[in-house]
Write a structure and sequence with these properties.
Layout (H helix, E strand, L loop, with lengths): L1 H17 L15 H6 L1 H7 L3 E12 L3 E8 L2 E8 L6 H7 L5 E10 L5 E12 L15 H6 L1 H7 L1 H23 L3 E2 L5 E2 L11 E4 L4 E5 L4 H9 L4 E9 L11 E10 L3 H20 L3 E4 L2 E4 L5 E4 H9 L8 H10 L10 H12 L8 E4 L21 E6 L2 E8 L4 H16 L10 H9 L4 E7 L1 H7 L18
Parallel strand pairs: 3-5, 6-10, 14-15
Antiparallel strand pairs: 1-2, 1-4, 2-3, 4-5, 7-9, 8-9, 10-11, 11-18, 12-13, 15-16, 16-17, 17-18
Helix pairs in contact: 6-7, 7-9, 8-14, 11-12
């Protein structure tokens, strides 16, 4: 059926070409957006001034000598009325027009007898002939896979999808403006790295032909930004894509946008104050309210966020102290919960797996989860109160992690030791363990000031919209069709 309809449209395309009319002209006449024309409809209609509107035909109603078209651009929709006795090329337009075509319509605004705001077309030009039919409005693209695979059609058929991405632009622009206002400098760091670092994740590998070397797509923005602190910058941030060759889920994609920023001479307490202020501002501007709905539950982001001790809540939920429990004890307990850790999983990984199973799903109201065991955060500074813990916080809400920050480790000796522990895990088979980065250690040996850092991804936006991360990504990577 699709090919039959395409064949019919190709015939219409040829008919236009045979008539000497270009179906894909270089430029278009446009004096107003449809939204602007409708906003000023009364004044423009009274002035009877000719204007030109452009857009996609979303509906065609043919009544013989009159065509009624629903014309839509990004700003809105209006009815275009084409009459045989007033439009010179009416017969040709009538014979070739299809739903999905782009047109330029010139005429004056008026209201029909039914009171519908319309444009009385005196000129009509094809701007782009559509060869594939749009889905019917009563059927549409209801299959999520189809909507994601042909996102461009989804955007045409579902204006609410466009609204999501308009809000996403507000989301990132608000974060950027907030940090600039706080005195942070936006920078760009390389996507290709010789040693990936800053997170526990398996990287993608690529080959650089000119240099004759393999490189990794970055899994984090962290280490290059901290090198800038060594170089004398005191407040830096980057919003950029990162890439992790790991599993897909409602909350995980392999390439996504991340924000990270680093603040010299600050600690994680100051960073918690700043991030709470930042989150409340971006949520209010993105959603228009401090309250959102997630999975049927109302979440109030406007209240003061509680600080929850990682070790304390872990002990409460599991009756195990992660600071003193052995690796074997944690492994056995994890398996009793139905978790199947890899044989090489270290103590930190086991603690994290248990936490994600038993603690995190219960944390619905936004909070700061603070001071976890040192084994699960190789890049954070140890707590002076208890060296078995690190000065790290996670922003947790809606049962998931929505951001992470910590007092940065700037002791090169301690950092090397922790990297070496991670390399032992890699040697045992853990592809997500941190790699030892000699250049980063070299930078630390020149001296990095005490600092706090923070990172968050677009997962927060997905949670605010109560959608999966791939639903809030314009063109998420999908398996090749047919494979």
């Amino acid at each position: 059926m699709r090919e039959e309809l395409r064949s019919e449209r190709l015939q219409k395309l040829k008919k236009m070409q045979d008539a000497g009319i270009a179906p894909y002209p270089i430029s278009a006449k446009r004096t107003h957006t449809i939204g602007d024309a409708r906003k000023k409809f009364g004044a423009l209609a009274r002035a009877k001034k000719k204007l030109f509107l452009v857009g996609r035909v979303m509906g065609v109603r043919d009544q013989g000598g009159v065509l009624f078209l629903d014309l839509r651009d990004q700003s809105g929709q209006i009815q275009a009325v084409l009459k045989k006795d007033t439009l010179p090329n009416f017969d040709l337009i009538q014979s070739v027009i299809d739903r999905g075509d782009f047109l330029s319509v010139g005429g004056v605004l008026f209201k029909t007898k039914k009171g519908e705001e319309s444009i009385d077309a005196k000129e009509c030009t094809m701007l782009a002939k559509s060869l594939l039919p749009l889905p019917t409005e009563w059927f549409g693209l209801e299959n999520e896979e189809a909507r994601l695979r042909e996102r461009y059609v989804d955007l045409v058929m579902h204006p609410d999808t466009r609204t999501v991405f308009e809000k996403k632009a507000i989301f990132w622009n608000t974060l950027r403006a907030f940090l600039v206002k706080e005195g942070f400098l936006e920078v760009e760091t390389p996507v290709l790295e010789s040693t990936p670092g800053g997170a526990e994740a398996e990287p993608f590998v690529t080959h650089h032909n000119a240099l004759g070397e393999d490189f990794y797509l970055r899994i984090s923005l962290e280490l290059p930004l901290k090198k800038l602190l060594v170089g004398g910058f005191e407040k830096v941030f980057e919003i950029g894509r990162i890439f992790r060759n790991e599993g897909m889920s409602r909350e995980h994609l392999q390439d996504y946008t991340q924000l990270e920023f680093y603040w010299a001479y600050a600690d994680y307490v100051a960073m918690m104050d700043l991030t709470e202020k930042m989150y409340k501002e971006v949520i209010k501007k993105t959603k228009g309210s401090s309250k959102t709905v997630w999975n049927g539950t109302t979440i109030d982001w406007g209240k003061k966020w509680e600080k929850v001790g990682y070790v304390e809540i872990f002990k409460k939920e599991n009756k195990i102290d992660p600071l003193v429990a052995s690796r074997e004890e944690l492994d056995g307990y994890a398996r009793s919960l139905g978790i199947k850790p890899e044989p090489f999983a270290g103590k930190g990984r086991l603690i994290d797996l248990i936490y994600k199973k038993t603690v995190r799903p219960k944390l619905l109201a936004p909070c700061f989860l603070i001071d976890p065991p040192v084994e699960i955060e190789p890049l954070a500074k140890r707590s002076p109160k208890d060296p078995r813990r690190v000065e790290r916080f996670q922003i947790v809400g809606c049962g998931t992690e929505l951001g992470k920050g910590f007092s940065e480790l700037n002791d090169p000796i301690d950092q090397r030791a922790r990297f070496e522990e991670q390399m032992n895990l890699r040697a045992a088979g853990d592809k997500e363990a941190h790699m030892l980065d000699e250049d980063y250690l070299n930078a630390l040996e020149y001296g990095m000031p005490p600092a706090a850092g923070f990172g968050m991804s677009e997962r927060l936006f997905a949670i605010l919209m109560d959608k999966s991360v791939r639903e809030t990504t314009l063109f998420p990577l999908l398996k090749t069709k047919g494979k």
